[in-house]
Structures are given as structure tokens and as C-alpha cells.
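User: Could you walk me through two proteins back to back? I'd like the raw sequence and the C-alpha cells for each, with a short line separating them so I can tell where one ends and the next begins.

Assistant: Of course. Protein one, sequence then structure:
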Amino acid sequence: MTRAQMNWKIVRSIIPIIGLWIIANSAKNLKEDYEPTEPLLKISASDLAWRFQVNEGAKLVGKTIEVFGVITLIDSTNIVIDKKVFFSRDSLILNNINIGDQVQLQARCANFLEQYGLCKIDHVSLIEE
């Protein structure tokens, strides 16, 4: 075996490790330690998703925002607003929320799932009107 063949075997064995490291770091969610701040923006759920679709939402990730809209889906794990923004049902303890209710929330903008066109928020709290 020549030196070039040995080098190629080494490089070929390192490539999957580097790929897994990149995937793990890109899929990692934001830090869980979060201190709520004054909302940077008050926006409807559909406008928030639109900002990400036109590549204007990256600066909102990790920031506190105020989102309003209509509940369009409630399932066992998630609640969806205006078919565009979702959050974990565990993060909001509300027994009296129903589909069709108008809500106003303060939350951290966590992520945008491009393949689904959905924006994820977390650390959600309901704003009473």
C-alpha cells in the first residue's frame, strides 16, 4: 500500500465524523437558560413566518417577541397559531384554550423549520388583555 492510499483511507474515515459533528451542531437548539426581556417586535404569526421565508427573520432567533393570532391546531404535543407558528404544549399550561381562540403571547423565537414553513417559539407566556 502506497503512502497516498494510506492518506486517502485516513481522510475517508474522518469525513463521516466531520459530517456528524456538523449535523449535531446545526441541529442543536438554543440554550435553555433564557431570561425574558422586553419584546423586540409585536407581530402576527403569519407575518413572523413570512419574515423567515424572505430571509428577514434570522435576526429574531433567540430574541423575545410578542406574537398574536388564532389557534388553528391543538394536539397532544403542540399548539399551532395561524398554521404558521407552533410551540410545545408543555410550555404553556392553559386548559381553557380552544381552537379558534385569539391569543397574544410573549415568547422567544427559537427556530424556523423551512421544509414545513413553520416557525417554532418557546418560553411562551400568555399576555392577558
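----
Protein two, same layout:
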Amino acid sequence: MANSKNNIQIYPSKKRIVPNDRLSKVLFNLTEADYQYLIDNQDTIGFVEMNNHKKFGEIVSPLKIDIDGESFSISEPLNQFDSAVISVCISEWLANNKITTPAIIFRGLTGKVGKHDAEPSKDQLAAIFNSVNKLMRLQLTYNMADICEKLNYNGGKPELLVSTLLPSHYIKASTVNGNDATTIYFTAEPPLLKIAKLKNEQLLTYDATLLDVPNQQNTPMNIAVKNYVMQRIQEVKLHRLTPTVTFDDVFKKCRIDNAHGEIKRRARETIIAFMNHLKSQSEITNLEITKKGNSFYSVKFTYSKKPLKLAISN
């Protein structure tokens, strides 16, 4: 595509939208072995949507992941940083922004939406580009026919999706909000958004600015940790789950469960500081750090429960 110097105005979304169906959770938590098997064999596998449905038992959907383009290789599986990047892009798409930039993605990841002087460092920019390139090239083939029929998703009609996770392209010579920038163009609705919507709107929504913790470094690990913890808190609040975040779960999901103890300590401090920040913003009302023996185990939290809406007929 030819370079463009047209000045583009973008008003980034302050609302974060996160797909929260089983597929979105599993994709970003594949083990290295499972991911490599899928890529190397280019094989369709049976993806377990549900284990113990009261009527149908196990519900399985055919799933395939491969790389769109022979000249590109992806050695590492998708992770929670990638999950955060795709949810920022989904949020922009839903805000009717079909164009974004790495700086806007950075502000979405860190909660600095609207702070035009917040620019990613060299390492942060590299992490964002690495993620965008992965998401642009990993192609998903997902057959929802069985689950649509059995659970009446999509009105019971079958759906087969074949798409890269982030349908897009980018150019490196544009002007956005008056500044030179790489411009990322979204070319179609991200498939994970479409899938979550078809599954009865399995989406989480929160104010992205809550991710902006004062005086906290936004390393790729801290970004992944904060975004995952926020997703868990929103899931707890939406579905009235046990209000606890365990450190081991965060470490596992952010792929640091086998890391050096110092890395885990820093991640634990990030979690606690983030949740204290959420308390100061009234997103949660209190928190308690628990131990098992001498080891830190979890953060229990409370929150203000909104009354359930009841359908009352006259």
C-alpha cells in the first residue's frame, strides 16, 4: 500500500471490551507443546466447549490454528499480553475506530487513554509490534455448528469462521492527531469478538482508565498481570463468583509460574498495588491478602453488588 500523509483524527475508547467465552480463554493459555503441535501439524482438533452440559454432556467444536504466510514464523504461543492487545483493538473497533496506532494501543493497555504525551518506550513499542504481528498472522478456523445447534447460539444456525485473529494491515508513514505515526488499519471485525457476541454476548466491560496505577512501571509483565487480574475481577462481579484472586493462577496465566522467585515477588507486588488502586477508585471496596503457611496465597476482595434485575410482569 502507498504511504499516506493525510492527517487522521482518532478519539480512543475509554471503555475496555474483553471477550470472555471459553475459546478466548483457552487460546491465550495454550501450552508451548500444544501450540507447537497445532502449528506444526496444521491439524483440526476437537475443542471442548463444555464438559458436563446437563442435556448434551460434552460439546466439542472443530478448531484449527495456523500461520497466514509461509515467510513468517511464530515460536511462542499466545499469552496474556496478546490477549490485552487484542481486547484494546476490539474496544477500538467497537468505538467505530477502524484505525489505531501503537501509542493508542499502549495507552489502552496501561489505562492512559486521553494522555497524549504518554508514549511507549522502545521495549514497550517492540512488545506491541511483536504482539500485533502475531495476531495479524495467526489464522483461526472455528466451526461452531454443533454448539450453535445445541445451545441455540446464532439462532441455532451453523457458523464457520476463518480469519486471522486481528484482520488488519499497517503503514509507517501517516500523521495521526498531528503526529507522525505507524497506522494500523482494521479490515474486518475481529473473530474473537464475533464469536463472543454469537455466544450470547459473552463480553466483559470496564473503564480502561482504571488500569492507570500512579507510579507503577508498565513493563510487558506488569501490563499482562494487571489486565488479567482486571479480567478476573470483572468476571467475578458479573457472575457472582468467589471474590478471590490467587497468586498461583495469575503466575500460571501470565507464564511466570516457573520463573525466579524475585520475578514472582515483583508480580505479587504489582497485583497488590493494582488492587489497592482499584479500592481507591471504588471499583472494589476492600481486600485481604491471605497466606497458606508461610506462603502468600491470594487476595480476597469485596465489592458493591448491584441488585439483580428481575423481569416482573403486570
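DSSP finds ten helices and 13 strands in the chain.

Let me know if you want the two compared in more detail.
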